[in-house]
Amino acid sequence: MEAVAGELAERGLVDLSIPDVATRAGVSQRTVYNYYNSKEGLVAAFEVWAEERLEDLGGRQVEKDLPAMADAIEVNFRLFSEMGDVSTALARISAAGGFGAPQLEATSRMQRARTEAVSRGVERDYGDLDFAQAAAVTAIIRQIMSFDTWHRLTDDFGIGGVEAGRTAAWVYRLVLDALDNGSVPFETDS
Fold first, then answer.
1. How many domains, in total, are found in the chain?
2. What are the angstrom distances between the C-alpha of 17 and each of 8, 14, 73, 140?
3. Ramachandran region of residue 172, left (φ > 0), alpha (ψ -120 to 50) or beta?
4. How confident is the model at residue 60 (pLDDT cuts 50, 70, 90)?
5. Which helix (H) or strand (E) holds 59?
6. Rama region for 26: left / alpha / beta (φ>0; ψ in -120 to 50; rest)
7. Are the beta carbons of 43 and 110 closer than 8 angstroms?
8. Domain presence at residue 72
9. SS3 (DSSP) at 188
10. What is the arithmetic mean of pLDDT over 158-170?
11. How far is it, in rounded angstroms, from Cα 57 to Cα 18?
C-alpha cells in the first residue's frame, strides 16, 4: 500500500499502473494481481487501508455533532501532513473522481457516506434551510474538510499541516456562525 501511495502521489490516478506499483513494492505483477484483480480494486483497497491508518493515528471521521467537526478537521489536517504520500494520494484520488466515476466506486461510497452524515447534521441543526440552501451548505462543509482542501492549503500555499487545520476549522466555524445568526448562502424564491 505504501507503493500505491507513492505512485499515486507522483503520477496521479490516471497514470497509476499495476506494473509500476509492483516494481516499486519489489514484488511481481502476478503477486499484485493475486490480491487485486484490477487497478480499481487496488485503489479501493488502498483507500480502505489509508482510512484505517488515519484512524489508527487518532484521526476522526465525520462527527454527528456539527460543531465537533471543527476539532476533527484540525486533528485530521495535522495527521494528513504526517501521513505524507498517503494523504497526497488520497487528495489526488478525490480530485480525480468523485461521485459517479465507475473506476472510483470505493471513493464514491466513502464520500457519499461522509456527505450523508454532514447532510443529516445540516438538516437536523438547520432545518429551516430549503433543499438548495441545505445542499449548498453541505457541499461547502464537505469541501472545507476534504483532502483536496488540505492539499491546496499545504501544497499550493505552503501552509503547514497544523496551520492548515486551524485555517480550515476557522472557515468551518464561520459557516456555522453565519448559519446560527440566520445568514443563508443565498435567498430562494419560495
1. 1
2. 9, 8, 32, 33
3. alpha
4. confident
5. none
6. left
7. no
8. yes
9. coil
10. 96
11. 28
Task: Write out the residue range of the structural domain in which residue 104 sits.
Answer: 2-180
Residue 100: predicted pLDDT: 39
> Which is nearest to 148 in space by CA: 120, 179, 114, 189?
114
- At position 186, the amino acid (one-letter code) is F
Its sign, for the CA torsion 74, 79, 84, 86, is negative
Q: Return d(Cα 66, Cα 125) in angstroms, integer.
A: 8
Q: Alpha-carbon distance 51 to 41, whole Å?
A: 16
| Three-state secondary structure call for residue 36 | coil
Average pLDDT over residues 5-34: 95
Which pTM was predicted? 0.84
Q: Is residue 159 part of a domain?
A: yes
CATH number of the domain bearing residue 57? 1.10.357.10
Taking only the tens place, the pLDDT of each residue in 79-125 is 999 999 999 998 888 777 643 344 455 555 677 788 899 999 999 99
CB atoms within 10 A of CB 25: 16
Helix-helix angle 105-125:131-144, to 10 degrees: 120
Write the CA distances from 39 to 3, 13, 96, 110, 129, integer angstroms: 13, 9, 14, 18, 41
